[in-house]
Structures are given as structure tokens and as C-alpha cells.
Amino acid sequence: MFDYRLEHVFSYSVTLQSPPEILGAVPDGARANFYVAGGSVTGPKLQGKLRPAGGDWLTVRTDGVAVLDVRGTIESHDGALIYVTYSGVGDLGVGGYEKFLRGEMPPVIALRVVPRFQTSHAGYLWLNRLQCLGVGEANTERLEVSYDIYAIR
Known about the structure:
Layout: E1 6-16, E2 21-26, E3 29-42, E4 48-60, E5 65-76, E6 81-91, H1 96-101, E7 108-118, E8 132-139, E9 144-152
Antiparallel strand pairs: 1-3, 1-9, 2-3, 3-4, 4-5, 5-6, 6-7, 7-8, 8-9
């Protein structure tokens, strides 16, 4: 076993624009684009907001697993711009693909992601060195997504 620890960096909540952009069935599964309307960032290492740009270019596989492809921009409380990108998964359950195509989503979906950050702001260069783990959930009825973000040390 390798020695490691998880350090809570921040938490955030995002509201998504309504309605999402549904592309439907494509060769890799079903595609939908969810765009960020805004959000808040709170925590011991970073505070600020999610800018209303970016989103999730989601693919739902035929086995019901949603594969996330998220990009966005955090604006820290002191004006730093921080680019965030992550992949991850959410399980829509048995029959999730077919239900997604019919517009039926579970009310809450557990999400597991691996965020990376990029910034040129001197006060936040430490973020460029992190590999993080995000544990969260999507509330599909309210179009809200929330995460706790941990650095793997």
C-alpha cells in the first residue's frame, strides 16, 4: 500500500441552465450538454464563484453509466481565474440509457470525478500541482450539482 491522505480543498454548488441541450442517441451512447448558469465555491483553501461559462458534455453509455466531460472557470474571491476540467462517472441505474432517451432521470445521481486546475495567478499556482478527487451528486429536478473536492496528498 502507498501512503496517501485526502485534504479538503473546497466545496462547490452549481446551477445548470434549463433546459439542457439534448443531442440524443449517437454512436458512443446518448449525448447531452449541460451549461453552467453560476455557482458558489466555499472551503478552507478556495472561495469564490463559478462563472456562467462552461458545462458538462455528457455521454450516457448503453449500460446506463453517465461519463462526464466538464470544463469551467472559477473566479476566486480575490479575482483569480482558475480553469477546471474533469472527467468522472454517474450511474443512472438499470435501464438508465433507455430512460435517459425518454427524458426520465433519477432525481439524484451520485457523481465521482477527478478534477485538475490551471491558473496563472501567483496566489493559486499551488492548484496547478494537484490531482484531486471529487465526491458529489446531481439533483436532476433542480438542475443543481454539488461536490466536495479533495487533494490527494
